[in-house]
Design brief:
Helix content: 10-25%
Low-confidence stretches: 1-42
Distance between the termini: 15 Å
Number of strands: 18
Radius of gyration: 21 Å
CATH architecture of the largest domain: 3-Layer(aba) Sandwich
Order of helices and strands: HEEEHEEEEEEEHHEHHHHEEEEEEHEH
Amino acid sequence: MRKAYGFSAAFAAAMLLLLGACMELEDLPDRGDTDTDTDTDTDTYTKYMSFDGLDMLIVVDNSISMAEEQQILATGMFSLVNAIAYPVDGSPAADDIRIAVTTTDMGLSWGGNPYEEGDGWPGTNPCSASGDNGGFQTYSSGTSIDIEEGVIECDEGASQCPMNWSCEDIGSDGVGTCQDSVGDGTYQACPSMSGAWAYMDWENTDEELAFQSACMTQRGTYGCGWEQQLQAGVAALTRSDQEVFVREDALLAIIVVSDEMDCSMENGPDIFATDDVQGTGDGPSRLNVACGNHQDFLYSPQHYVQTWRALKDDTVNGVFFAAIVGVSTGGECQGDGTEIGNCLESSAMELVEVIEEDSAGQDAVYFRPACTRDEGGTQVTKAIPAVRMVDVARRFGEYGYVYSICNADWTDGMTEIGNRITDQMAGEI
């Protein structure tokens, strides 16, 4: 059962009248230093707030292996948004929400610089210079997506369902699941939207928020295979044409969805110069293991914790980070940052090199997956250990969360993320 925290317009107004206060962030009691990292940095974040709204960024891997996972994400977005805006258990709902989407495609950019000839990549650059560079992604008129029936939880009012769907099989707890009233959930026409992100606020309740968000996350599979998940999350929130997205009085949530490890490059030329990239060593190509083997040329995980917290004036609970990534589906690698302390020491997260055929039928070196998923005897998900994103979530402590991308149904994970966001908005975690 989720905690009964959240914000409706009536609830917020009543509280403001009771306190005789203007609408500002509220300082909560000092809980001491909760920095959970184990290095020697000196971070001491002790300022806590409650928040009137939510600014949520979804970073979606749009590389070649992500078709099935993006399909699950489309349905999962309903569970996530509903847990925040339309909870089925009657909890107070947040009603001031912004949701933006970007991709992991940063091209071969590094250190904030677009890739240029001479930076050292051998042969022709397989990606663009800067990819989407954190740009917010929307969709065009006429877009449609598939949504799975019997997965999205709903109540009798069916406000959690796509438009014109019904809530069926309602149990004694008042909870059922969304069913397509006229079809099988395929080719659902995306609702129109304007602007660079989906939103609802106290004056403009948007019943299509979850549907719009689901449509935005369908980014295709043509993005750069050198995914820079963490750097894309920073670029999206700091570029001059989008920085207005982050509001002072709103919780900032960053959610990454990817089946690969992070390769957020601080020093491109040096990583390009390695034998792994240049192919000067003996044996099959080692291009696919370069980022894992040369992490000293990448931005540190702590860099992202500090950068995102700086956007919220170093407020300890001002940022929530979640990663739906390559970890095992059970045990010590799923949960909040205080629960996954032993994850990086587990056997599934070891960067073990294996030789497999690549898309051209040639032998190549890869890292052994942290998890896989089969459908009908066919492998549809193979996720590489997301060591750096797990590390970021661990450093955020109770404000970080990890869930395995190899789960076939993301309802539980997405609902938990939504519940934790709502509780964090209230300053209760």
